[in-house]
Amino acid sequence: MKNEQPVRILFITDNFPPEVNAPATRTYEHCKEWAKKGAEITVITCAPNFPHGKVYKGYKNSLYRVEETEGIRVIRVWSYITANKGFAKRVLDYISFAHSAFWAGLFQKTDIIVATSPQFFTTWAAWGLSKIKRKPWIFELRDLWPESIKTVGAMKQGAAIELLEKIELGLYRSCDRVVAVTEAFRKNLISRGIPADKIDVVTNGSNMELFHPREPNRELLRQLGLEGKFVVGYIGTHGMAHSLDFVVKSLKTVEEDPDIHFLFIGDGAMKESVVEQARKLDLRNVTFLNPVSKEEVPRYLSIVDLSLAPLKKSDTFKTVIPSKIFEASAMRKPTLLGVEGQAREILEKYGAGLAFEPENREDFIDKLYRLKNDKALYKKAQEGCEELARDFDRKRLAMKMFEILKDTVNSRTS
Fold first, then answer.
1. Which of 236, 293, 312, 391 is surrounded by the most beta carbons within 10 Å?
2. What range does the domain containing 258 cover?
C-alpha cells in the first residue's frame, strides 16, 4: 500500500453513540482521532438501545441506515433487540447483529477490519469478512468472554461453555492481531498458547478535552440537596458484574454519618433490584438518577468527592480496569476502587485513591472514611489523579492503536 493512500477501516461494534457505555465511548473517540489523521472509517453498528433494549428517540431498528458524524461513516443495521438482561435473549441479540453486520460488511471497501468484544459474536462477523475479502482483521479484546459470563452466574461450566471457549481461542489464532485493553488480558492469552508477539495492549483512557478539573456545579448541588455533603458517586452501568447490591447493603452502616451521601447515575440489569433494596432498607443517604449523556457526565462528576468503581470478587475481574478510573482522575476525583489485580496496581502506583477488597464491608467503610477524613491523603490522591490522567490520555492511546492498524495493513501488502 502506498503511503499517501488513506487507510480504510471497517469497525464492527454493537455499541456506539448516542449510547454512553465504555465500548461505545472508546470506539467513537478512537475513530474520531483516526479520521482526523485522514483514515476513511466505516462503523457498522445497530440502532442505539443499550441498556433497556428500547430504541432511542429519533432512531428506528431499520434494515440499513447510513449517517455520518465527525468524519465517521456509520451504518446501522437491523438486530433482534432486547434489554441487557436474560442470557438467551441477549445471545440472540448478539448473533442477529453479527449476522446483519456480516452482510452489510460484504459491500464495504476496506483495508482492515476491526471487531470489538465483549459481545464476541461481532468477531465472528469480522472473521468471516476477513476470509471473503482477504483482508486483515483485528480482535479488540475488551472482556474475556465467555469466562466473564460464568463469573456473573449467567452460565455454568459445561459443553456449551467449552464449545464457546474453543471458538474464542480459534478467533484469537485466526485474527492478524489482538489489541487487548489490559496487560492482564495479554498475559491470559499468552498462558493459553497465543503468541506474545501477536498481542498489543491499548488501555482505556481519559478524554482530556471533555474531562478536566472544574468547580462543582452549585446549581446541581442545590437541585439534588447535596450542598455540604461528602458525595460518593457511581456513574455507569448497573450490571450483574458491578456489585452494587453489596454497596447498597453497606450504606446502612454509613447512614450514621449525615455528611456522606451516595449518588448512583445510570441503568442496567440490576438497577431495579438495587433501588428496591435501598427502599427496603429505608436508606436516606442515597440518590438514584437516570442515565445522562456523555457530555453531561463531567457536570455530575464535578459535584462528586469520590468516584466509586466496584466489581464482584472474582479472579476473572482481576484482569479488568474500569474506565471510570481514568475519567474521574482527569477531573481530580480520587477513586474508591473495589477491584483487585491490574486496576488496583494502577491506582496504587499513582496514589489516585484507595482500593478495598471487593465485597468486604469493613474494608470498604474503612477506606471510605480514610479518604473522607484524612485531608492530606485526599490532596495527595488528587495529585496522583493528575499524573494518572496525563499518562492515560485517550488521544495518545488512539494514535497508538492507529499505528498498530497501519502496520498490520502494511505487513499484508508489503
1. 236
2. 218-391
